[in-house]
Every structure is written in C-alpha cells, then in structure tokens.
C-alpha cells in the first residue's frame, strides 16, 4: 500500500465513526437527493476550480460567470425577475454567512440612510440562531417577538408593535427550522415597509424546495414568501440543502444593487492591493461555486420539481404516520419538509426515543424545550428519505422505539443539581466550576459524550440559558484538546 492509499484508508477509518451522509437515515445536517451521479459530478467540478481564488474576480473571470448564472437561477425561482425587478445576489459559504451579511447590510443601510446609531433587529423567537450571532457580532440589539403557541408562527401585528425608529431589520422564516412553518411574510413585510424598515426572509433551508414545489401544478402551493412579495428586501437560500449541492453553497438575494452595496467592504489605504469583498471571506476557493453550478445545471428545473414532489408526498406520509403512533404528535402544521415530533405521554421522553433510534442507525435531532415549544425531535425530509420504502422503514422503527423508550422512562434530573446551578454566575464561572457542572451532566473530562445523550440533554435543558451557553463551548473546547 503506497502513501496515498494509507492516507485515504485513514480517512475512511475516521469516517466510520460519523453519521451517514447518504441513504436517508440522518435526518438533520445532511441533504441527499438519492441521485448517485451528483456526487461524482460535483467532485469533478469542484476539483476543476479548487485552485481558483474568488478573492479577485478580475483575475479569475470564471468566478463572475458562474456566480452570475447561479444567482440568476435563484432570482428566477424566488420572485426576483418580475416587472421592474432589479434583483442581484451574492454567493456565500452557507446559510450563516448569508444571514450575517443580510444583518450587516441592514445595519449599514439604517446608519447611512436613516442615521440609526443604536440599531435593533426584530426577530421571532423561532428565528435561526445565526441572526443572534449576527446581532452579537455586529452590535445590534435583539428585539424578540413571541410566536403563537399552537401554530409557532409570528403575528404581523406583534412584529409591527416591536418596530421603532431604531429598527434596522425584520426577519421572518420560510420555513422556521424548529417547526417547519412559514411565517406570514406578506403581512410582516408590509408592516416593515410602512416604517421604512428592511425585511429579510430566511429561506435558507426551504426556499429551493418551496420554490420548485410551487411549480408542480398537482401540489398545494406554499404560502407566499419570496422577493415577489412587496416589502421583502432580501432573501437567503442555501444550495447545499434542497439544491443538493456539496456543502459551502448559499445565495443571498437583494432587491437591488444599491442595497447590496451597503454590505460590501472596500479598502485602499494600505500599501498592498486594493481590497473589495462582497462576503465575509477574502480568499475563497471557487470549488464550491463550481460544484453548485454543475449540480444545478445537471438537475434542472424539471428535476428539482420532481424532487420537490417526492419530498412533499413523503412529508405528508410521515406526518400522517406519526399521528397514528400512540404517544407522539407533530407540533404545528408543517408548511415545508421539516417535522417536529413531541410526546403526548409524560412517561415517554423524545430524547430517549432519539437514543433508541440512533442505536439502530437513525439520527433524529433532539430539540430542547423552549418557551411554548416542548422537547421534541426534528426530522428533515430529503429526496433520499422519500425514496423506496424509507418512510415506511422510519415509521416502523419509530413505532417500535416508542414502547422501548416508554419502558426506560424519562431521564432523571437531580433537582438539587438544578437548584445549585441557578446560584452560579455564568459570566464568572471558573474552569473548575465548569468541569464540575459538565461532569454532573454526564460529560467526560475529555469532552467524551455518552452513547445515550438523553440524560445530558435533559440536564442542559433545565439549566438557565446563560449557563448552558457558557458550558457548551467548554464541551467543544475539550473535544479539541483545549481543556
């Protein structure tokens, strides 16, 4: 075996401990079209442009051509090509970067056009954490707006009530990650527009799917959500989700080039080359862009519409099937391909169900309780999940896991531990105190996690959020050898 083979063998050994990224059993984090040829095509396209540097598009004009074609495809799908439309966009590394850039652009727009010096961002409590990250990084005050406890959608009236002269941006979701429901985009966008405020639609996870589902005459149309809605000023859509491209591909669309300019960075006051960045990155490989372009070209509109049809039908079968499993219920009424599953039985805990499923090769993502949303399991339905008998297999396995989980009972959390935790000052927590807290939650000194995560998640769920946010980086630090 030569050196190259040994290196690849080592990678294969490492991958053996990961979740599967193909086959439809990992129902979070990965998106699989179930089309074998896409992986090879994307790999070849990525390799062809891996060495091309997107930092300077004047030196590498292929980047401009590919990005323009990808953005144009997204704009055409998502309401950006109607009469009078001047939609432009930026290719980014993923949904988080797209969201960060949307917030940065809104902050600068509010400062330059309205003189806002203490900007605020209005977020439904179901908005993705990426927007809280953006507010933290860019100095915006978050104004949280509660959602309906039954539908998990935000009210446009509540959005309007939260607006002030300092509001830089309103965010709504299509759909929200946690529950898969689409916020009332037309009403929220109208409320924002009435106050001269920008409105961003987070369609990172659902935009490509919902846009193509809308093209299928035999399927119910999704609620209106895109740039064709008056008042919507920007929209993010990830290609590495339901466009099934490799990771590192998202598009941020703006209503016009003038708005987009507020988020760009340019600098010439130094002795090096003039710098202009449309993204947070400087140097960036054109490989992900080329791979995304190639996959989009290959699948085409008809292909994506067919994939959307499969996903829609599979999601409906999944929701109906879960409704027939004693002890489980779906939260809200999903508009897209994301399903949140909670328990109706105090003796049945979703986190224990997740452990039972994972031990049998399925990953359902645990979501801790928050506000009116109880602890639940998140399921992302992709085209691979829709293929063959996968939904039937999932429902059969889930129905079998429920009685096992019920027999095991809910994870037990020591009340004394939680009471002690509430006396701790998260901001002043010492490393030794953090280690004790993590040990009590079942996390090893080296960051090792137990095979069954329900007890750990149950403890973290009960801790004050500030303390949980303090402890989570400690877990990651230990995993990376930084204890």
Automatic annotation (TrEMBL):
GO terms for biological process: carboxylic acid metabolic process. Keywords: Lyase, Pyridoxal phosphate. Belongs to the group II decarboxylase family. Sphingosine-1-phosphate lyase subfamily. It holds the Pfam family Pyridoxal_deC. The keyword Lyase applies. The modification N6-(pyridoxal phosphate)lysine is found at residue 241. SUPFAM superfamilies: PLP-dependent transferases. InterPro entries: GrpII_AminoAcid_Decarb, PyrdxlP-dep_de-COase, PyrdxlP-dep_Trfase, PyrdxlP-dep_Trfase_major, PyrdxlP-dep_Trfase_small. PANTHER family: PTHR42735, SPHINGOSINE-1-PHOSPHATE LYASE 1 (PTHR42735:SF6). The lineage of its organism: Bacteria, Bacillati, Actinomycetota, Actinomycetes, Kitasatosporales. This is Glutamate or tyrosine decarboxylase. GO terms for molecular function: aromatic-L-amino-acid decarboxylase activity; pyridoxal phosphate binding. Its cofactor is pyridoxal 5'-phosphate. It comes from the Bacteria.
């Amino acid at each position: 075996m030569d050196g190259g083979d040994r290196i690849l063998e080592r990678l294969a050994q490492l991958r053996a401990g990961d979740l599967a990224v193909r086959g439809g059993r990992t129902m979070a984090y990965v998106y699989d079209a179930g089309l074998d040829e896409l992986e090879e095509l994307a790999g070849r396209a990525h390799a062809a442009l891996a060495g091309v540097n997107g930092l300077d598009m004047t030196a590498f004009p292929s980047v401009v051509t590919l990005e323009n074609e990808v953005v144009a495809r997204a704009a055409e799908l998502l309401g950006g090509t109607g009469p009078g439309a001047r939609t432009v966009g930026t290719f980014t590394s993923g949904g988080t970067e797209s969201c960060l850039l949307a917030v940065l652009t809104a902050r600068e727009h509010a400062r330059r056009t309205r003189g806002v010096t203490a900007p605020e961002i209005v977020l439904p409590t179901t908005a993705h954490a990426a927007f809280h990250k953006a507010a933290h990084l860019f100095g915006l005050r978050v104004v949280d707006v509660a959602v309906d406890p039954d539908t998990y959608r935000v009210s446009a009236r509540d959005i309007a009530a939260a607006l002030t002269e300092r509001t830089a941006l309103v965010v709504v979701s299509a759909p929200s990650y946690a529950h898969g429901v689409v916020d009332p985009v037309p009403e929220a966008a109208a409320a924002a527009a009435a106050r001269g405020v920008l409105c961003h639609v987070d369609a990172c996870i659902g935009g490509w799917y919902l846009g193509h589902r809308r093209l299928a005459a035999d399927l119910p149309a999704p609620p209106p959500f895109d740039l064709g809605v008056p008042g919507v000023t920007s929209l993010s859509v990830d290609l590495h989700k339901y466009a099934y491209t490799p990771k590192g591909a998202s598009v941020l669309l703006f209503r016009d080039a003038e708005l987009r300019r507020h988020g760009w960075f340019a600098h010439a006051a130094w002795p090096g080359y003039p710098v202009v960045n449309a993204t947070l990155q400087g140097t960036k490989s054109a490989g992900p862009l080329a791979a995304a372009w190639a996959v989009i070209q290959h699948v085409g509109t008809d292909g994506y519409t067919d994939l959307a049809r499969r996903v829609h039908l599979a999601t409906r079968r999944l929701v109906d099937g879960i409704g027939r499993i004693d002890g489980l219920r779906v939260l809200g009424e999903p508009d897209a391909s994301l399903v949140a599953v909670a328990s109706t039985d105090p003796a049945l805990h979703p986190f224990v169900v997740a452990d039972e499923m994972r031990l049998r090769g399925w990953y359902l993502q645990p979501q801790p309780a928050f506000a009116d949303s109880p602890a639940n399991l998140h399921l992302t339905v992709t085209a691979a999940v829709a293929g063959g008998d996968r939904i039937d297999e999932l429902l059969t396995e889930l129905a079998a896991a429920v009685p096992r989980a019920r027999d095991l009972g809910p994870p037990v959390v020591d009340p004394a531990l939680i009471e002690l935790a509430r006396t701790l000052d998260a901001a002043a927590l010492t490393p030794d105190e953090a280690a004790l807290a993590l040990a009590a939650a079942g996390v090893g000194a080296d960051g090792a996690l137990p095979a069954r995560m329900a007890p750990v998640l149950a403890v973290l769920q009960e801790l004050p959020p500030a303390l949980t946010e303090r402890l989570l980086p400690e877990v990651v630090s230990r995993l990376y050898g930084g204890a």
